[in-house]
Amino acid sequence: MNWFLLFIAGLFEIGWVYALKTSDNFANLKYGMLAVFLLVLSMACLSLSLRSIPVGTAYAIWTGIGAVGAAVLGIMLFSEPATAVRMACISLIVAGVVGLKLSAA
Length: 105
Known about the structure:
It comes from Rhizobium setariae. This is Guanidinium exporter. It is found in: Cell membrane. One of its GO terms (molecular function) is transmembrane transporter activity. By secondary structure, this protein is an all-alpha fold. The protein has one domain (about 1-105). It is built from 4 helices and no strands.
């Protein structure tokens, strides 16, 4: 259950980053408040997942999910470049997250 909570925390992490970008520096208050709400949910799920997952592992996986998700959203929704170097770096993050998960099993 704690690994599931960590995954959900990562998804909320992606969500708040998207809402923050869409809020246009909080000019759009609806998206700004959504960003804050999703951030709180993300932190709550992360906190609950720490009951049995080591903090270093959980934090790295949480930020990894958020970083990869935000990069992919940027490419898909905000026309950010999908260069070979960028994709290779995203792959390295994914490899690190998978490695951490496997080493914590």
